[in-house]
Each structure stands twice: as C-alpha cells, then as structure tokens.
Design brief:
This protein is an alpha+beta fold and 244 residues long. It is 44% helix and 20% strand. It folds into 2 domains: 131 residues, Sandwich (Jelly Rolls), CATH 2.60.120.10; 100 residues, Winged helix-like DNA-binding domain superfamily/Winged helix DNA-binding domain (Arc Repressor Mutant, subunit A, Orthogonal Bundle), CATH 1.10.10.10. Strands 2-6-4-5 form a 4-stranded antiparallel beta sheet. The protein has a 3-stranded antiparallel beta sheet with strand order 1-7-3. A two-stranded antiparallel ribbon has the order 8-9. A hairpin with a 5-residue loop joins strand 4 and strand 5. The N and C termini lie far apart (35 Å).
C-alpha cells in the first residue's frame, strides 16, 4: 500500500480511492511567491499542500487583489476547476513555501467520474471552500483589520503544518487583507505590543496563540468548526509550532 502524503484530503480517502490516485501523485517543492495560475489559464495540475500554503486572489481592474480563500494541508487547489472548465477564474500563488503533492487535472477528473467515494470527498472539499469564500466576503465587509489579521495569521500557520515564524512581507499582508501596507504595520505593531506576535520585516512569529485566538474575529471559529464537521482539519507538525 502506498504511503499517504501529509494532506487531510488525501488521508480522508478510502484505501481503494487512494490507491487509484497514488500512481498519479508526484512530490513537488513549492517556492514562495510563484504564481500557479492566472485568470483564464488552463490548470494542468491539482495540488495537495502538505507544508506549503496556497492563496486564491480575486483581482480588481486597477490591479489590486484580495485573498478570498486559501488552501493548505486540509485540502487541495485546482480540484474544482478540474471537475469543471479546467480553467482558473482567479490568480493562485504560493503564499508560504514548502512541500506538496500534485496530480494531473485529467486524472482527478476521471476519478471523480469513476469513484463515488472520491467524488463524495471532492464535493465535501468544495463545500468547505465555498463556505470559506462566502465567509471571507462577510469578513471583509464587517470585521476590523486587527481581528482579520489575527484570524489570518492563525489560519496561515495552522494550514502550513504549523509554520512559525511565517515568511510574510508588508506588501503581501496588505494584499491578503485588502488594505495598505501602512495599515498592516499599524495593526501588527499593536499585536506585537500586546506580546501576541513578533513582527519583523518579512517575518511574523506567533508568540501567544491563545491570546491571538481571543483577538480573532468570529470567522475563525466558523472555519475551525466547518473543517471539523467535514473531517478536513489541517495536519500540523507538533515540532513546528514552537513557541506556542
């Protein structure tokens, strides 16, 4: 039996379904900042993150972009597109470097058609991603930058196998939160003064996870509950989360 990658979606598959996709899986190194797809571009691969973190960005006509969802060790990127048009509707990029497994989109599409169990698990992942995308819209409209920043840092670390510190720049944080870099700095400094994070150029270290949880918006709780309901919790390396 093939060894399963550290990805919750792949580990949720039955033995039969996993053995069907295993021959198509290859391990890849994911480099920070690399763009995986642009709007309208054909997606040749489905990625199953293990220690990396991938972002899906919605772009405005003026060039600004906002993260609408992310994919980490709980799920996959490109599986929904593989089952549909095969083309990306957004910009997808590597937010945090690390490892991932990937499989050809066509192979995944064939499995959805031939395996009821694989299809069921794929639809559960789509359910999670759609729910998180909807919650992201609410979050952008109703919640403060600081509470969104706290939630986003927790989610990013958790979904990248517990990465701490996180390699994040002001520009990147601003793009993720839909605000200017100076605004990101202001609220990050507030979290640092509260001894919740250590914020340096290009790096954020979580110092107090419980304290950051208390500052995070209600969307954090919704995300955790939804992933638990669908058995798609991120796989966290216990040795990677120090100093939590």
């Amino acid at each position: 039996m093939s060894a399963r990658p550290r990805n919750a979606f792949l580990r949720s598959l039955s033995a039969e379904a996993f053995e069907s996709i295993a021959p198509h899986l290859t391990s890849v190194e994911m480099e920070h900042g690399r763009i995986l797809s642009e709007p309208g571009q054909r997606m040749e691969w489905v990625f199953f993150p293990e220690t990396c973190l991938l972002s899906i960005l919605t772009n405005a006509q003026n060039g600004d972009s906002v993260e609408t969802t992310m994919a980490g060790s709980e799920g996959a990127l490109g599986l929904l597109e593989a089952c549909g048009s095969g083309r990306s509707a957004a910009t997808t990029l590597i937010q945090v470097d690390g490892h991932a497994s990937r499989a050809p989109s066509q192979a995944c599409k064939s499995l959805v058609r031939s395996s009821d169990h694989f299809a069921e698990k794929a639809y559960e992942l789509f359910e999670l991603q759609i729910a998180e995308s909807r919650q992201s819209g609410l979050c952008q409209a109703l919640h403060t930058v600081q509470t969104r920043l706290a939630r986003w840092l927790l989610e990013s670390s958790e979904r990248s196998a517990g990465r701490n510190p996180l390699p994040l720049t002001q520009e990147f944080l601003g793009s993720m939160l839909g605000v200017q870099r100076t605004t990101v700095t202001s609220f990050a400094v507030q979290l640092q003064k509260a001894s919740l994070i250590n914020y340096r150029r290009g790096s954020v270290t979580i110092l107090d996870r419980e304290g950051l949880e208390a500052r995070a918006c209600e969307c954090r709780e919704m995300s955790v509950e939804e992933r638990g309901r669908l058995s798609l919790e991120p796989i966290v390396d216990a040795g990677a989360i120090s100093p939590w």
